[in-house]
Structure formats: structure tokens, C-alpha cells
Design goal:
Layout: E1 3-7, H1 8-18, E2 23-26, H2 34-45, E3 49-52, H3 56-68, E4 73-77, H4 79-84, H5 86-94, E5 99-105, H6 121-126, E6 136-138, H7 143-160, E7 163-169, H8 170-174, E8 176-180, H9 217-237, E9 241-244, E10 251-254, H10 257-272, E11 277-282, E12 284-286, E13 302-307, H11 314-321, E14 327-331, H12 340-353
Length: 354
């Protein structure tokens, strides 16, 4: 075991190199700046491509071009910057192009502030660009998991030929934890890029065109149906989550990322005092882990959705619960991070009032 003390953003950059990233295109924005700063040095040393673009819009279109040429490519940004990339992300999905996108979320709307937030949930899971498309998204809750999922993301992106987003908040990007860098990520069997990438003219092969433009509506509908088939496959195979103390829980908290860490601290205290509380922690935000809610214990009476937002994941929680249990909400906004006691107080109020 080889443990190194790493800031979250540094772990992202190191994992990208280990995951085989060939090229990075980005633009500075707090609180993710350590990612391009780290890569600007080490990608050059490894003979790979690093380029600071003139804008976020330019960066995502450079990602499109590099991915179309068969490169493993990544970009990173924070909330307003990801918003600027949305049109390019829609193009990438429409053209069946793989890439990794890291979003170190900050408070909004607008420029907001640079403190931690989870208010990009709709943007991540519904997409801010045009058309029917989906982005696979992971929400790690510690630096070790972040390090592993960035590496995993490159394989998953290539496997499905689809963008993959790593969604963390600014706290995870800036905090430091020991990371076991010797961990080996299980590799997937990746389809040969020579079957689709624009790697150069070859007279023996059919001409390859990377495109998302279909002027014939019948052709566009067929293209969309093929995308939907892919998304259905992803929904079936890629849902990821963890559960804690569900067996006898009366209240089940649903939280991801930093909020899940806080919820676990709250649960430990509540259980010492006799409150039966558990946790469902979504790891994939899309596909949302509906399977986690299929066989809840008979003891479950209430669901509490906890987010660093005004309430966005709560929509998916309500879909997953489908009216079986009442769903409550607790959230903080603007970069305010709650103490475990705040969640505990909400749980006690729910149980005592009912």
C-alpha cells in the first residue's frame, strides 16, 4: 500500500494521468484550478497535450476534436464554466464521443460564490444543452473514491462512447486526505477506436465522419432511438450506490458527496441515542440508482433527502419512492455546509412529530 496525502483536485489530475489521459483542454476557474495547474506541468513531462484554451467554450470544442480523433481527453471546470460547456457536451453526446468532464461545484446561481455546493444537480443529470441526451455521472464522497472513479471514467466513456462527468463539490476539491495510489482499477474491454475515430485516410476503409447533424427527420429519429438504446443499457448496467444501517431503519437519509459524509456522522450519533436511521448514498447521479429503493425494510417510515442545494435530487428520490413513503427535505445553499447536529435535529423533529 502506497498512501500519499493529496488535495482532491490533485487526486483528479494524478488519476487522469494514471487513467491514460492523452490531452487536457481547460480554462481557469475557482475552486478547480489545481487540476489544470498540476496537469500543465506533468502532462508536458509525459509527452502529452495540455492546452489552456481562451474560454470554456473553446475548451469543450477542443475536447470534441481530440475525442473525434481517438484521443483520451478530459476537461475540468466549475459550475458557471460547465454551464458554458453545455452546448459542446450536447454535441459530444450527439456524435457518440467519449470524454471525461470534471465539475468541482460552487454556489450559484450566476457567478454565485466559490464555496461548496451541489446546486448543479439538474445541470448534471438533465443536461443544460439541447436535445435528448444523457451524461453518465459519478459523485464520489472521499478523495480515495475520487481518485479511483476518475480512472474508471475513462474506460466507461470509451466503452459507451459517451461523456462521463465527475461531480464533486468545492469542499472535496480543496480538502486533503491520504490516498492509496497503488490501487489498480479493473479495466474494461474497450471497442477498437479504429472502427470509428478519424485517425487518417485509409483507402481500404469506409470514410469516417464524426457528426451530430441529421437534416432528414427520419434519420435523426433513428439516431435518437439508437442513443436511447444505449442509455437504456447504461441504466440497466451502471447504477451504483451504497447503503448503511438500512436493516432496521425508520428514517432513511438519501445524500451524496460531502452531504453523505455529514449524514453518516449524524447517523452515528443518532443511533447511539436509539434513533434507527440509515443512509442510501447514490454514487451514480445518472443513471440514478433506482434499484437502491426497490427493497426497503418494512421498518422504514420516512425518507429525508439531504442536499447542498434548494432541493434538486429530491425529484429523483420521489420518483424512486413512487409514493410509498413520505419524503422530507433538508438543504443548505450558497456554500453553507451544515454540521451533523443540523441533520440530527431534522431527523428528531420528523420522528417526534409523527
Amino acid at each position: 500500500m502506497s498512501k500519499v496525502l493529496l488535495k482532491g483536485n490533485e487526486a483528479v489530475a494524478l488519476a487522469a494521468l494514471k487513467g491514460g489521459c492523452d490531452a487536457f483542454f481547460g480554462y481557469p476557474i475557482t475552486p478547480q484550478n489545481e487540476i489544470p495547474e498540476y496537469l500543465s506541468k506533468y502532462m508536458k513531462e509525459q509527452g502529452k497535450v495540455f492546452l489552456q484554451a481562451e474560454s470554456e467554450i473553446a475548451a469543450i470544442n477542443m475536447v470534441y476534436g481530440a475525442s473525434g480523433a481517438g484521443a483520451r481527453v478530459m476537461t475540468s471546470s466549475s459550475s458557471p464554466g460547465i454551464a458554458l460547456k453545455q452546448e459542446g457536451i450536447s454535441y459530444l453526446c450527439g456524435a457518440n464521443l467519449p470524454c471525461v468532464i470534471v465539475n468541482v461545484m460552487r454556489g450559484g446561481p450566476g457567478l454565485g460564490g466559490i464555496q461548496p455546493s451541489q446546486a448543479d444537480y439538474y445541470q448534471i443529470t438533465r443536461g443544460g444543452g439541447n436535445g435528448d441526451y444523457r451524461v453518465i455521472s459519478y459523485a464520489p464522497y472521499n478523495i480515495q473514491e475520487l481518485y479511483e472513479f476518475v480512472q474508471r471514467a475513462f474506460d466507461v466513456a470509451d466503452y459507451y462512447r459517451n461523456p462521463v462527468m465527475i461531480a464533486i463539490d468545492g469542499l472535496l476539491g480543496q480538502m486533503m486526505e491520504p490516498v492509496d495510489t497503488s490501487v489498480e482499477i479493473k479495466k474494461r474491454e474497450i471497442p477498437d477506436k479504429e472502427t470509428w475515430a478519424t485517425t487518417g485516410y485509409n483507402p481500404t476503409n469506409k470514410r469516417r465522419i464524426i457528426n451530430s447533424l441529421y437534416l432528414d427527420p427520419q434519420e435523426l429519429e433513428k439516431h435518437n432511438q439508437r442513443l436511447i438504446e444505449k442509455y437504456n443499457q447504461i441504466q440497466e448496467n451502471e447504477q451504483m450506490y451504497e447503503t448503511y444501517f438500512l436493516e432496521d431503519s425508520e428514517v432513511i437519509i438519501v445524500a451524496y458527496g460531502t452531504m453523505a459524509r455529514i449524514a453518516l456522522s449524524s447517523i452515528a450519533t443518532l443511533r447511539e441515542k436509539g434513533y434507527r436511521v440509515g443512509l442510501i448514498r447514490p454514487i451514480t447521479l445518472w443513471p440514478y440508482p433506482l434499484k437502491a429503493f426497490e427493497n426497503l425494510p418494512t421498518s422504514a417510515k420516512y425518507i429525508l433527502c439531504a442536499e447542498l442545494s434548494a432541493g434538486q435530487m429530491i425529484d429523483d428520490v420521489k420518483i424512486a419512492i413512487n409514493g410509498r413513503l413520505p419524503v422530507y427535505f433538508f438543504g443548505r445553499q450558497g456554500g453553507m455546509v451544515p454540521d451533523p447536529e443540523e441533520i440530527s435535529a431534522v431527523v428528531k423533529k420528523i420522528m417526534e412529530e409523527k
